[in-house]
């Protein structure tokens, strides 16, 4: 046979195979679609080849574990996924009495996607939803975990000072997704691990956690010398993005043993819920070059004393260098905003810039024991709400703190007073804006104490913290070497040298703002009974509840174009879904909520409608959504905004309108 003919036939010989599994089948078949397997125990015995598929039927359930220990190849991964009627729910994989629902053991070039994974347990043994584990395996490559729903994983808890604060973490950790490089003979590490677009809900202890026994290096803090034992072999190419984590018992997302990991556009709502120990939202330890960008963390709990460091949104921990946190949001975390825990080896060359903190409680910045070298904290915006009295900076160390705190905005509203616990003169505080009841820090230089001109302070929407025209925070920042090219909103930082996280031109004052914190509906007309209630997320302040069939309307007196922003919380339910309508003089625009992405039930989201006579657009949490835009049959005399609770009901908060 000629070589060309052989090469043409070769792909047919190497065609991938698909193996079908149906949890509702009464007997175990041969793995074809017409005679599927009915047990996951068949998977380890399959003669899998690169490009093969393991397909679980939608709408059915399986007792795990699902064990995958064979590798694909570059460009021909082995895929575990779902098949069947797309309207049916994802196939359920539970662990039964085993530790792992899904175990990827030493395999490379694999993808696991579109599964519903649970591992209830009793909180008395380690439990994991997905466990990616390799020991003495060398380089483990290209593993993707995506579109998974991982929930109710009840690993070993609580992790108190009595039961042991290490319970559920380090080696053999418990949680939703756990990545571990183990062994003692062959350096083992992961390369090109992608974790994206997963929902992780109600898991203990960790949300997404990475660990390596190959950790020893000169920069390692001493207390880890007994926790991980072998010479440094860092993982690389880790990307954790667009995941949504809720009700996490301990830490949200933890990066250890990695070079240049990226943690991007994740949402964490509620962490440190059951651990009763030291946990943070998103953090890194013993890693180099970690990047955290465009994440949102809220609802962190802290059951320990004010100096514990528990329940803080973000953390640059020990044995790290080159860590970057930029364009992140933190709000309503009991522990506070940012933690630094270097211990006996300094955390080096970290940058905290263009982030937003709203109503974080105990501490804005806290330093644990140990030194910091080459730290930059600049152009962040911090709002401290009524009744809160956090520390701006608190430190309890005799080590040197080489940190610049510059060009930030700190705004305090209402009762309470923000304070300082900072004695190290190497920690320089220069050219920051402080307004409201904030105790004076005697060593601060060039402070600005006039009103900073925040557009709508106290709201959780980042656009509430644009800077108004005419205020001294505009074009008054000092130069910081290595500044970012763009700000939080993608404005070029070269355009305006502003303090805080916004680098654009001065904006207009909102025409009106409705916070609903004063127990009133000022300016709104209700059809039915609307009520002011506690924030359903537990955040500071109150919210408006629109039960089934109830709506509110407010007249608009400004001309187009303008922008409407509000927070929405859609309860779980079906039927006539809520809506937001803008009726202009000649045009109307209506957003009908949908039971689909990007709408997510049972959490706060930000809806923005840009309204004009020529066109209107809408986004939810920055993602475009369908908007019904129409020309009226005749001009109306009164324009209005109408918010309708539909048949499911709706919570609404922080409504504001700004002329474009």
Strand and helix layout:
Elements: H1 3-13, E1 18-21, E2 53-57, E3 61-63, E4 66-68, E5 78-83, E6 92-94, E7 100-105, E8 110-113, E9 116-119, E10 128-135, E11 139-141, E12 143-146, E13 149-154, E14 175-182, E15 189-191, E16 194-196, E17 199-204, E18 206-212, E19 214-216, E20 230-231, E21 235-236, E22 239-241, E23 244-248, E24 253-256, E25 258-259, E26 262-264, E27 267-271, E28 280-285, E29 291-293, E30 296-300, E31 312-317, E32 324-326, E33 329-331, E34 336-341, E35 343-348, E36 351-353, E37 356-358, E38 363-367, E39 370-378, E40 381-384, E41 391-395, E42 401-406, E43 409-412, E44 419-421, E45 427-430, E46 433-435, E47 512-514, E48 525-527, E49 531-534, E50 542-546, E51 551-556, E52 562-569, E53 579-583, E54 587-592, E55 604-611, E56 617-620, E57 623-624, E58 628-631, E59 639-644, E60 650-659
Parallel strand pairs: 1-2, 2-5, 3-6, 4-7, 5-8, 6-9, 7-10, 8-12, 9-13, 10-14, 11-15, 12-16, 13-17, 14-18, 16-22, 17-23, 18-24, 19-20, 21-25, 22-26, 23-27, 24-28, 26-29, 27-30, 28-31, 29-32, 30-33, 31-34, 32-36, 33-37, 34-38, 35-39, 36-39, 37-40, 38-41, 39-42, 40-43, 41-44, 42-45, 43-46
Antiparallel strand pairs: 47-60, 48-51, 49-50, 50-60, 51-59, 52-55, 52-60, 53-54, 53-59, 54-58, 55-56, 56-57
């Amino acid at each position: 046979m000629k070589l060309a003919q052989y090469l043409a036939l070769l792909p047919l010989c190497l065609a991938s195979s698909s193996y079908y599994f149906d949890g509702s089948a009464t007997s175990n078949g041969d793995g074809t679609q017409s005679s599927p397997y009915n047990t996951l125990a068949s998977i380890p015995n399959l003669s899998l080849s690169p490009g093969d598929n393991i397909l679980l039927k939608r709408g059915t359930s399986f007792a795990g574990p699902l064990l995958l220990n064979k590798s694909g190849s570059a460009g021909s991964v082995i895929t575990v996924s779902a098949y069947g009627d797309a309207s049916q729910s994802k196939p359920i994989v539970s662990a039964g009495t085993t530790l792992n629902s899904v175990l990827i053991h030493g395999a490379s070039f694999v993808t696991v996607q579109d599964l519903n994974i649970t591992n209830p347990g009793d909180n008395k043994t380690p439990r994991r939803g997905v466990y990616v584990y390799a020991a003495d395996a060398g380089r483990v490559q290209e593993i993707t975990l995506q579109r998974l729903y991982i929930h109710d994983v009840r690993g070993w808890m609580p992790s108190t000072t009595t039961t042991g604060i290490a319970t559920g973490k380090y080696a053999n950790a418990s949680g939703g997704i756990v990545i571990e490089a183990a062994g003692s003979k062959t350096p083992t590490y992961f390369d090109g691990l992608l974790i994206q677009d997963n929902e992780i809900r109600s898991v203990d202890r960790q949300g997404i956690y990475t660990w390596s026994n190959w950790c020893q290096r000169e920069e390692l803090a001493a207390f880890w010398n007994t926790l991980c034992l072998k010479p440094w072999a860092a993982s690389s190419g880790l990307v954790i993005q667009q995941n949504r984590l809720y009700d996490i018992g301990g830490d949200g997302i933890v990066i250890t043993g990695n070079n240049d990991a990226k943690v991007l556009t994740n949402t964490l709502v509620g962490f440190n819920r059951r651990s009763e120990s030291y946990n943070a939202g998103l953090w890194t330890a013993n890693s180099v070059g970690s990047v955290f960008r465009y994440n949102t963390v809220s609802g962190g709990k802290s059951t320990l004393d004010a100096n514990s460091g528990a329940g803080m949104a973000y953390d640059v921990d020990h044995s790290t260098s080159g860590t970057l946190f930029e364009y992140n949001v933190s709000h309503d975390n009991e522990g506070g905003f940012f933690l630094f825990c270097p211990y006996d080896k300094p955390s080096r060359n970290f940058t905290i810039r263009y982030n937003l903190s709203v109503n974080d409680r105990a501490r804005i910045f806290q330093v644990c024991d140990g030194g910091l070298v080459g730290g930059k904290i600049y152009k962040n915006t911090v709002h401290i709400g009524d009744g809160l009295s956090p520390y701006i900076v608190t430190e309890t160390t005799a080590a040197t703190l080489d940190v610049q705190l510059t060009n930030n905005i700190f705004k305090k509203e209402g009762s309470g007073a923000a304070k300082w616990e900072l004695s190290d003169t190497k920690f320089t505080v220069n050219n920051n804006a402080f307004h409201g009841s904030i105790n004076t820090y005697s060593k601060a230089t060039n402070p600005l104490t006039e009103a900073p001109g925040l557009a709508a302070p106290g709201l959780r929407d980042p656009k509430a913290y644009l800077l108004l025209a005419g205020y001294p925070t505009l074009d008054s920042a000092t130069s910081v070497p290595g500044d970012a090219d763009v700000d939080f909103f993608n404005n070029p930082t070269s355009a305006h040298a502003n303090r805080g996280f916004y680098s654009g031109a001065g904006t207009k004052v909102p025409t009106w703002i409705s916070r609903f914190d004063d127990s009133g509906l000022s300016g709104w007309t209700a059809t039915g009974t609307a009520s002011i209630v506690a924030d359903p997320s537990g955040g500071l302040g109150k919210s408006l509840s629109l039960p089934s069939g109830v709506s509110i309307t407010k007249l608009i007196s400004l001309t187009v174009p303008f922008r409407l922003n509000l927070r929405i919380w859609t309860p779980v339910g079906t039927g006539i879904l809520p809506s937001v309508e803008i009726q202009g003089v000649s045009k109307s625009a209506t957003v009908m909520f949908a039971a689909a992405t990007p709408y997510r039930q049972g959490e706060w989201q930000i809806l923005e409608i840009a309204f004009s006579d020529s066109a209107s657009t809408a986004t939810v949490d920055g993602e475009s959504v369908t908007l019904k835009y129409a020309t009226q049959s005749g001009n109306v005399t009164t324009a209005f905004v109408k918010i309708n609770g539909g048949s499911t009901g709706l919570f609404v908060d922080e409504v504001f309108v700004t002329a474009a």
